[in-house]
Amino acid sequence: MFYCELEVECNEKKTPKVIKFYNSTKYCVDVLDQMARKHSTKSAFRRWPAQVFFNILDLAAINSWVIYKEVVGTKIKSRDYIFNLADELRNNHVLCKTSTLSDFTPGTDDGPTASSRKIKKCKINRCRYNTMSICCDSKKSVCGSCTSKMIKLSVCRNCKK
C-alpha cells in the first residue's frame, strides 16, 4: 500500500509520504506519550511486566484526567489531578487496611510507641536473638523464628496455643 515506493515531498524537511501520513493520523498517540513521560509513575524496574504495568497506570491516569475535564468542565492541571488521584487512592487503601487490621488486633491498645521500640533479647525460652517485634498478646519481645505472623502482627508461640 504505502511501502511500494518511496515518495518524498519537496519541502524543507523532505519527509517521506508514509511518515507524513502517520503523523497526520497518529498525532494523539504522540501527545499521550509525551504527557505520560511528563508525569510518569515508572521507576527503574528492569522487569518488563513492571514497566508495562506502570505504563498502563500512566495512561489510565491521563485518560481519567481527560474524561474528568470533559465531564466536570473545570480546568485543572494534569499534574494536580494526578496528585489528587494518587492521594484519594492512597487514602482509600489506608482506610481499608486499618479497618482490616483493627479486626485482628486484640483489645484497644495500639502497642508500643516508636520511642519504646528498642532492640531487645527474645523472651521465649532459651532464644538469644535480638528483636524489635513484640507479641500482641503477652507484650514480650519476640524474634522472627519464635513468632507466628498474622497480617503484620507478631504472636509468640506460647500465646498462639
From TrEMBL:
Residues 12-65 form the PiggyBac transposable element-derived protein domain. It holds the Pfam family DDE_Tnp_1_7. InterPro entries: PGBD (IPR029526). This is PiggyBac transposable element-derived protein domain-containing protein.
